[in-house]
Design a protein that fits this description.
Blueprint (H helix, E strand, L loop, with lengths): L6 H4 L4 H11 L3 H15 L3 H7 L8 H5 L3 H17 L4 H21 L4 H31 L3 H34 L3 H29 L1 H7 L1 H16 L2 E4 L10 H22 L3 E9 L3 E8 L11 H16 L3 E7 L9 E9 L13 E2 L1
Parallel strand pairs: 1-2
Antiparallel strand pairs: 1-6, 2-3, 3-5, 4-5
Helix pairs in contact: 2-8, 3-7, 6-8, 7-8, 9-10, 12-13, 13-14
């Protein structure tokens, strides 16, 4: 883990006031815990998340802090931040838990006629806890980026070279030609090339957006899974002409980063198969919470389907890759397909993936279904 500040320096001027403050608070810690947990229950309604942030009670660090072992305190807060991020707990909820704990400590300290330096020491303690908790969340995000596998890296490099690099080379050539035409007084040629240049710039911008969206983890960090799915489906529809509808989601607002990345990759693979193999005109995507609890994603299309024992090699490879992603996360991957010749009954292909969840964030429905 990356250390930003030496812990000893953060408390160098408040060691003794902090020890006195903790000594004054010690008899009150049981009542502080009860009041703090009750307040947490009002602001964090989902039980799994409530239990996750309840480990941030600072009284459990009293022996370390009284002994001046600030290194152990900050290391543990970083680990807690990384663990909470992995369980999908919103960072602002973890910060709120620490702020509420501080609020419940100030009353007993004021009643005990503590000095200003003792109050300042407790405020500093909570601020440092938030700092290293944030560092843990940042470490978790960094680990998520580093898990980008080699296949994704090659695809990103290819897209940057083929799409964006090509457009920039042509754009440079056009600008050089326009400069020469302008110098030689050929205004008509400049005007024509300028119009083509605007088109190239627009195409380059679209390519950058597509590459960023396809990369996955970046857009997930920014928007979360549900909004990223809607955005990807909308762009897929615009690029291909295949109508993709995303249903209302009842998943928690955020899932563990590895789950979000895995589901997003499966969505990309499933829609890629729809485009390349299905000859479908429509597809639907749904996200829901299943028993366990679990996250469930279903991608369906109205295409030609396929015979399970006669799949094209490219299709088999894509499906196997998706299955391996889900199984690596302890999930389940199922495919059903009905070939087109059937006169009645279902047709097309249905992919369903299920991932077990532990410690989810607050539910946040994303609005009604609609064509994207």
């Amino acid at each position: 883990m990356t250390r930003r500040f030496p812990p000893d320096q953060l408390f160098s001027d408040l060691r003794e006031p902090l020890r006195r403050a903790l000594e004054r608070l010690s008899p009150h810690f049981p009542e502080i815990q009860l009041a703090w947990r009750a307040r947490l229950g009002h602001v964090i309604r989902r039980r799994e998340e409530y239990e996750a942030v309840a480990v941030l009670a600072l009284d459990r660090y009293q022996p370390q802090l009284s002994a001046g072992d600030f290194e152990a305190f900050t290391v543990d807060l970083e680990r807690q931040g990384q663990a909470l991020a992995g369980r999908g707990v919103a960072e602002e909820h973890a910060f709120l838990a620490l702020a509420l704990y501080l609020e419940h400590c100030l009353g007993p300290l004021s009643g005990a006629a503590a000095g200003q330096t003792e109050l300042a020491a407790i405020v500093r303690l909570v601020s440092v806890a938030q700092l290293f908790l944030h560092s843990g969340y940042a470490n978790a995000r960094t680990v998520g980026w580093r898990t980008l596998d080699e296949k994704d890296r090659r695809r990103l490099a290819r897209d940057l070279h083929d799409e964006i690099g090509h457009n920039l080379v042509v754009l440079k050539l056009y600008i050089e030609q326009m400069a020469l035409d302008f110098k030689n007084g050929r205004a008509a040629q400049v005007r024509s090339k300028l119009e083509e240049t605007v088109g190239l710039v627009t195409e380059a911008i679209d390519s950058v957006r597509r590459v960023i969206l396809d990369l996955g983890p970046a857009i997930l960090d920014e928007l979360g899974l549900q909004q990223a799915v809607r955005l990807y489906a909308r762009q897929f529809s615009e690029r291909t002409g295949i109508t993709v509808r995303v249903g209302e989601s009842v998943l928690p607002a955020r899932l563990p980063p590895a789950h979000e990345a895995g589901l997003y990759r499966v969505l990309q693979g499933a829609l890629s198969n729809v485009l390349q193999h299905s000859r479908a005109r429509n597809a639907t995507v749904s996200l829901s919470e299943g028993p366990g609890p679990s996250a469930v994603m279903v991608v369906e299309d109205d295409g030609v389907g396929f015979e399970a024992n006669r799949r094209a090699p490219a299709l088999s490879f894509g499906l196997n890759t998706m299955r391996e992603r889900m199984e690596a996360l302890g999930g389940r991957f199922q495919v059903q397909s009905w070939p087109a010749p059937a006169a009645k009954g279902p047709r097309g292909t249905r992919i369903e993936v299920t991932l077990p969840l532990v410690g989810n964030a607050t539910h946040a429905p994303q609005g009604p279904a609609g064509a994207l």
